[in-house]
């Protein structure tokens, strides 16, 4: 695994938060093409709008610095994690939209000292509701998505190691705990 920490500037957590928000927005946008019907496409569009708001808020925290210059040094680690969790089909994408966004928001909120922008702060998202319905009616899908969700938390923990410095052990433990709570709520913990 490459070491992306060598040339990291002091403002890296804010830049990484902004870049991670952009990649989560991209992840949601990719779902539009595979949505099974119009109502799902509309729901994906609404989810993308909420992710766009998270991205814009993260950009605003960068201040006067040019966003592309600020984010350039931190893209490698986030891009690598994103490549390792590229979704292959609709349900993986829905799980990623729900679980990866929450993990990313929690990780970078901790690193930047921000308490806001938790994905699930306003209650279950569209993706959470769809997952809940699907896994309760299909145990095979539930088992597959349970494994997939563990992969997502693994990559979030890799990013915690990349960006967390001395805070890494505590951040990793908190990410795992919150992720386990979300998985249990979605019926994915078995």
Structure description:
This protein is mainly alpha-helical. The chain has a single domain (12-186), classed as Ferritin. 75% of the residues lie in helices and 0% in strands. It has eight helices and no strands.
- Principal-axis shape: globular
- What does the largest sheet look like? none
Number of helices: 8
**Low-pLDDT stretches:** 117-123
Oligomeric nature of the chains: single chain
Decide which structural class fits the backbone. mainly alpha
What is the CATH architecture assignment? Answer: Up-down Bundle
Could you say what the CATH topology is called?
Ferritin
Rg from alpha-carbon coordinates: 16 Å
What is the CATH class designation?
Mainly Alpha
Total domains? 1
Q: How many E strands?
A: 0
Task: Find the CATH superfamily.
Answer: Ferritin, core subunit, four-helix bundle
Helix content: over 70%
Order of helical and strand elements? HHHHHHHH
State the gist of this model.
This protein is 75% helix and 0% strand. The protein is built from 8 helices and no strands.
Jot down its keywords.
mainly alpha, single chain, 190 residues
Layout of SSEs?
Blueprint: H1 12-34, H2 38-61, H3 67-71, H4 75-84, H5 90-112, H6 126-137, H7 139-164, H8 168-186
Helix pairs in contact: 1-2, 1-4, 1-5, 4-7, 5-6, 5-7, 5-8, 6-7, 7-8
């Amino acid at each position: 695994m490459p070491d992306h920490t060598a040339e990291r500037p002091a403002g890296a957590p804010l830049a990484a938060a902004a870049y991670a928000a952009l990649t989560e927005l991209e992840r949601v946008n990719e779902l539009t093409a595979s949505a099974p019907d119009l109502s799902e496409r509309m729901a994906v569009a609404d989810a993308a709008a909420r992710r766009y708001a998270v991205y814009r808020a993260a950009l605003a925290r960068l201040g006067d610095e040019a966003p592309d210059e600020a984010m350039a040094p931190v893209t490698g680690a986030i891009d690598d994690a994103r490549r390792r969790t590229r979704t292959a089909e609709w349900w993986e994408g829905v799980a990623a939209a729900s679980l990866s966004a929450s993990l990313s928001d929690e990780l970078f909120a901790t690193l930047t000292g921000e308490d806001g922008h938790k994905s699930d702060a306003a209650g279950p998202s569209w993706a959470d509701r769809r997952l809940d319905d699907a896994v309760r009616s299909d145990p095979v899908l539930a088992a597959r998505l349970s494994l997939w969700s563990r992969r997502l938390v693994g990559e979030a923990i890799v990013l915690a190691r990349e960006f967390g410095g001395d805070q890494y052990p505590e951040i990793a433990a908190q990410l795992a705990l919150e992720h386990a709570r979300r998985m249990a709520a979605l019926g994915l913990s078995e």
